Amino acid sequence: MLGDYRITGRRASEIAADVEQGVSSGRLAPGTPLPPLRELAGELGVNPNTVAAAYRLLRDRGVIETAGRKGSRIRPRPAHTPRDQIRLPVPPHARDLSHGNPDPAQLPDLTPALAAAAEAARRDPVQYGRPAADPGLLALAGAAFAADGLPAGPIAIASGSLDTIERILVTRLRPGDAVAVEDPGWGSLLDLLPALGLRTVPVPLDDAGPLPGALAEALADGVRALVVTNRAQNPTGAALTADRAAELRAVLAGHPDVLLIEDDHGHGIVDQPYQSLVGPATAHWAVVRSAAKAYGPDLRLSVAVGDRDTVGRVLGRQRLGAGWVSHLLQRTVAELWRADAAPADRVAAAYRARREALIGELAARGVAAYGASGLNVWVPVPDETTVLAALVQRGWVAAPGARYRLQSPPGLRITVTGLDPADARRLAEDLAAVLGTMPGADGPGSRLV
Fold it and tell me: Which of 170, 202, 214, 217 has its CA 20 to 30 A from that of 406?
């Protein structure tokens, strides 16, 4: 099971440290299964509870993962090595389509909003003891959530979508709990979950969102939470339709205690109506919206509405740590939101035109691609490494699907924010030429999953 490596130690901390040393030295390779608790306890002459505590420490640190009766094994990649480090260098002659950033030309001028926030701070400086949230931002966020038909609830303000999601997960789940996630899905989330000691359960999706049957299987297997991207899904661009949302709500209705987190990072850059999975029986839920895509990634701010208990826990824990998000940032985002400086219809139309141009050019050449909303297009390929290398030679750098996949087939993520129609045509020609030389390349009828 462990080859020549022999785990040592008498205390839980010693056993855990020895396993970590084996991983860092390379003597315990990713995927290596660990001995069952009682077997290792017998070898070491310790109580099985001591080994269980050691495994718990390793799981909490993201060194190992546990899959119930299948036992524990070394994680495929250390939790401190983010998936976004899996990237190709961009040669001087190449276009970088792997970054996932919004188009700077579609972002608002921050100067007026920053000046207004600074003037507000001069007139009314924020000091210790003040409320954590800016009233103006709370009002705007509340009105937007209500307009999309979400239930009324308290609102939390945090430093971006991932920060909010992490705070929610930590307050509601324990290490070892299982979380259902989209596959392909957001790489940062797929890294965060094992780093928190949580298990990921992949749920495949298509252009309309997660597949109901797959979600039902995950729920039947005992997942404690579901994280879903309602539109502008990263990396595939999927967007929930009304019919699919209704199907998923019906599935979730049988599991009212499952924590539901909806990541609406595409708010402000999409033209699809918001389709929520929150149902009348949903006990624990939150909808998270970030300013990053509409106003710029450096505006590290998000708003989240949810049930009173979940949001109350987040706010309480935040007060003990960070305290609050800078009111300068809050007021800046409120000014941008109030001025409608990045109107969603114009921005969404620009991104839609670029996605549809690339998808159409690829379809004309027999290559399937997906992207119902957002900044990216997903292209299934038979072999990521070969296709990526060939595209680099032709002057294009795409994001490898390995950043986003758990069990789903290979693919590439192409960020379209910098593509004009002529670029889309040239890229489609090059990608079709590369795929045409490969056996098993998907045709127009291929599926996302």
Answer: 170
Name 87's Cβ contacts closer than 8 Å, sequence gap at least 6: 98, 399, 400, 403
Higher-confidence position of 75 and 9? 9
Residue among 167, 151, 209 at smallest CA distance from 374:
209
pLDDT at position 84 over 80: no
Whether the Cβ atoms of residue 205 and residue 371 lie closer than 8 Å to each other: no
Tens of pLDDT, residues 140-172: 999 999 999 999 999 999 999 999 999 999 999
Only one residue has tokens 């699919």, namely 244
CB 400 within 8 A of CB 415: no
pTM of the model: 0.85
Q: Which DSSP state fits 410?
A: P
Q: How many CB atoms lie within 10 A of CB 418?
A: 15
- Token couple for 216: 């039902």
Find the DSSP H helices in 61-211. Answer: 111-123, 135-147, 161-172, 187-195
Is there a contact between 197 and 176 (Cβ–Cβ < 8 Å)?
yes
Dist CA 128 CA 150 (whole Å):
32
For residues 173 and 197, what is the distance between their CA atoms, to the nearest angstrom?
A: 10
The C-alpha atoms of residue 440 and residue 435 are separated, in whole angstroms, by 9
pLDDT tens for each residue of 101-141: 999 999 999 999 999 999 999 999 999 999 999 999 999 99
Strand duo 155-158 + 302-306: pairing: antiparallel
